[in-house]
């Protein structure tokens, strides 16, 4: 029953991640607006209805029809509805089932690589968080502290007992991960008088350093830069994307982190025998 259970859990968690990806940026925007109004000295702030990861119930953004339980079964509901809302027929993005499938792949891949152990469960958690951060950064160019900071502390926590690397390596990895991109950020800003990346990228690399150790950081930075360059050039050449438009770097850090988690040591052996 292990693998069917792993697939089912991954699909369900992937379905929940779709909610996180869609709602968390909006929740943060509401918080920022409320804080700005408070700092501006607004006497009365308009009370807004509750909006979080639980309420209100999921609904079609086009017609507002509440999604029923049978229409919310991972992957199967999307296929049964043929990617259309049952009420108004509006198109439902294929990314919803893709995220659910990737969630299942994350759980199964972690258990295959690390076995049905607490280490495998921890690896699945890391992969699922990276999936959520990738989608959010791709949509909004934001890497919320609500996800990056818990991921960092979780990495230090699991390595208290050396789940992936010794604790010393994890602590140095968190420090070096943040500091390295922080230095790149300020060097670029001083040279070009503009920001080259966001603080969320520092925190994500720090989190990866906390999980995988400082030894993996050069590989992660190299892989993320290579992946980002290939995709960026491809978008410019094939789709005519304006090279002056900022490109989210978080997804490439996440992809590099996944590669380092599964194949980091063999790749490191190529240049550090």
Number of strands: 0
Which structural class best describes the helix and strand composition?
A: mainly alpha
The geometry reads as globular
Q: What is Rg?
A: 20 Å
> How large is the share of residues in beta strands?
under 5%
Assembly context of the chains: single chain
State the helical fraction. 55-70%
Question: What is the residue-mean pLDDT, rounded to a whole number?
Answer: 91
How is the biggest beta sheet arranged? Answer: none
Low-confidence stretches: none
Series of H and E elements: HHHHHHHHH
In angstroms, what separates the terminal alpha carbons? 40 Å
Polypeptide structure, described:
The chain is mainly alpha-helical and 273 residues long. The protein has 9 helices and no strands. Helix 5 runs parallel beside helix 7 and helix 8 crosses helix 9. The mean pLDDT is 91.
Keywords:
273 residues, mainly alpha, globular
